[in-house]
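Meet today's protein:

…
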Amino acid sequence: MIDWLRSLSYQISDQESIVCRSPSRMYGKDFLKSTKEDFCDNPITRPRYIIITVSTAIAVATVVIAVLAVLLFYKFQVKFYKKWKFHPFDRDECVGEDMDYDVFLSCSSKDDNPHGFRILRQMESKGYRVCHHERDFQPGQLIIDNIVHGVERSKRTVCLISKNFLER
């Protein structure tokens, strides 16, 4: 543009009136006396743009990586729990409470063999103290009283819901 304007400068009567308005670093300077380099990026602000661009890219990349990590962990959480033998429910949320059992296992007596006993053995093999009706209910008491007493003395209740359970 400077070359074009200079080629027409013999036709301009008041050449001093042609001054720059922008960029701000060129404001008020004589346009015809400027060089092409004067209109290039300001060498002082160029590193600032590079730093801002790189910083923004790093921040965006960090957020994207964090979101992907959370999504992958969420998708594969069961595999992670199995691999590292960690489960979020393995911690005791009833610390300080004097409970007789960790789990009250509720199931139909018709489901005890094999499902109820298999679940009972698996929980006890993991170290849980399980209240089970055949072993822990008090003879001579009403069944409902035994159930209420077992639930009240246990930290959790696990119900084996089956057709037999629902029919009773």
About this structure: Residues 45 and 143 are 82 Å apart (CA to CA). The radius of gyration is 39 Å. The longest strand covers residues 101-106. The mean pLDDT is 80.
